[in-house]
Design a protein that fits this description.
The structure is a single chain. Helix 4 (86-92) packs across helix 5. The radius of gyration is 17 Å and the shape is globular. By secondary structure, the protein is α/β, with parallel strands linked by helices. It has helices spanning 14-17, 29-38, 54-62, 86-92, 94-102, 114-131, 160-171, and strands at residues 3-9, 47-50, 68-69, 152-158, 187-194, 197-205. Strands 3-2-4-1-5-6 form a six-stranded mixed β-sheet. The chain has seven helices and six strands.
Length: 208
């Protein structure tokens, strides 16, 4: 059985523009407007899920998706850096930031390392083809896809770091590749997988 997963990165927010470790603050007016404009442009999907952050939930709602929040798809926990801008942390703790950027197992902020994020997201992703279900219930976009359980299309609205982690895992790339992947707001990246092997279709802007 093959599963297709379309990852939609959250629409724009002030925190994204400021490179702030905010834990997923709300969308700004421009981001919300863009997401609403893109509503109806997604292909039919059997199920939809979202990172349990405000901007991902708001993006999913603006796109017209009845997305189930999934804890395994939450953004990386940034510990005591949460709420601070990257440039502020770099000025105050340059060695800690350098370690965090160079060593995926490093978590100087006291939160979650990138390796832990990768493991969490990879576990969720690899369970899809086998189980056909994630979490305690199923939530769809309101549009049905044909096929057996565990096949068809799944839409996931996620934080950029979650999309990056999924791509690193899908490509079998070393964790350091995480920092070389750009995931702009409100873009789609499609993975198709079977038996733990994933193929990538690179992201395109929604509504283009």
């Amino acid at each position: 059985m093959t599963v297709r997963v379309i990852f939609i990165s959250a629409a724009g927010s002030a925190a994204l523009r400021e490179a702030r470790f905010d834990g997923g603050g709300p969308l700004d007016a421009a981001g919300l407007r863009r997401a609403r404009t893109a509503a109806g442009t997604l292909p039919p999907a059997r199920r939809s899920y979202a990172s349990p952050t405000a901007r991902c939930r708001e993006t999913a709602e603006a796109l017209g998706l009845a997305a189930e929040p999934v804890p395994a798809l939450d953004g990386c926990a940034m510990g005591r850096w949460r709420g601070r801008r990257l440039d502020e942390v770099m000025a105050a703790e340059p060695e800690a930031v350098a370690g965090w950027l160079s060593d995926p197992s490093c978590a100087p902020h006291g939160g979650e390392s990138l390796l832990e994020l990768h493991t969490r997201v990879a576990g969720w992703l690899d369970a899809l083809p086998d189980s056909g279900q994630v979490g305690s219930g199923q939530a769809g976009s309101g549009q049905a896809d044909s096929g057996q359980a565990g096949s068809g299309r799944v839409v996931v609205v996620a934080e950029p770091d979650v999309v990056r982690a999924a791509l690193v895992h899908a490509l079998g790339a070393p964790p350091q590749v995480f920092w070389r992947l750009d995931v702009p707001p409100l873009t789609a990246t499609e993975l198709s997988g079977r038996d733990g092997r994933w193929n990538l279709r690179c992201g395109t802007p929604l509504g283009s």
